[in-house]
Amino acid sequence: MRIAFFTETYYPTPDGVSHYLHEVKRGLEARGHEVFVFTLTGQLERNVVRPLSVPMFWYRQYRWPVNFFPFILYKKMKDVNPDVIHIHDPFYMGTLGYRLARELRRPIVATFHTDFSKMMDAVSLPMKETLFRISWRYNMYLYRRCDAVLAPSPKAAELLRSNGAGNVRVLPLFTDLSRFTWCRRESVRPFLAYIGRLTVDKGVWRAVEIARELGRSVGGTRLMIAGTGPEEERLKESVPEYKEAEIEFLGYVSEEEKQRILRESYFFVYPSTSDTFGISVLEAMATGLPAVVTPGFPLLDFTGSGDCTILHTEPPETAGRIRALLENPSSYMQLSEGARQFVESNFSSEAHIESLLSIYSSIRQKTK
């Protein structure tokens, strides 16, 4: 089968979607399928096509196309002649994928990776409310015209259906359990980690407040923050005010550095309000880290999540829950073992790819 992915972002761009696509491409190719990636960012590798682009001024790891009428690029897309078209964003590349599917009369799948409606506070633009409203409407307009829309969690599927999308199927994401291995922590220390974009909606400010409250109650703590984003400078300016916590800003980190951070940490703090799944949380849990997440976080929809998560309400209460685990290593160990078991039981890469292939085959049969 020849499969074409259309995405704004690809590996090693620092976000969950780019890494996910890289893993899925490898998995599909290992099963004998051809996968082509049309993207605006990422490394050039076999069957990856990236047109000329320039960095976004507010989010420099992402890019704008230079040519909004890409006749040569579109010809390359047609020459690929894919059996299935899979769009992973609803904007520039996603629109090109949709147009190609309609012209070639190919089945089209979309994956709902990002809830753009929750990201408005992360950018500073004139008339941003209007811009986000129009973007969300276009997002749903495109999804309603796809043969299948994949949601990474039941919560995301419910949001899609409530906005008129049909043919919605839940397909959870996964993490590589061979890279993110369980680490036994003999003692429990107040070391926290946050890995993700530094934006308001991802909860990085809440993570800092939790570290501050915990430091007050236990006599100091450490928070490692890995990632980049529009809140980075404001956070760094505020750090001198947080005497109770040692806060390290590590910027964008490699996969090897990410694994080191998780091995050295004891709790993963990610109180996001905008995720449709939470791949960074899954990676942390795979190493045995109990995760601090908000009520309603998408991973809580899956069986066993209550055995490995700490619900964040207000910083003092959340810090109190962490402190109780610091004082009770056996309870911490139960959460740590439960975190790994939760990932192993619910999120297999093999099952994900097999389900994806089954969806491709079924919509190809329906659209013949």
UniProtKB/TrEMBL annotation:
Organism, by scientific name, is Thermogymnomonas acidicola
Stretch forming the signal peptide: none
Q: What is this protein called?
A: Glycosyl transferase
* Record-linked Pfam families: Glyco_transf_4 (PF13439), Glycos_transf_1 (PF00534)
Q: Ranges for the Glycosyltransferase subfamily 4-like N-terminal domain? A: 15-179
> Which Gene Ontology terms cover its molecular function?
glycosyltransferase activity
- Domain (Glycosyl transferase family) spans 189-341
Family matches, as Gene3D superfamilies: Glycogen Phosphorylase B
Q: Which UniProt keywords apply?
A: Transferase
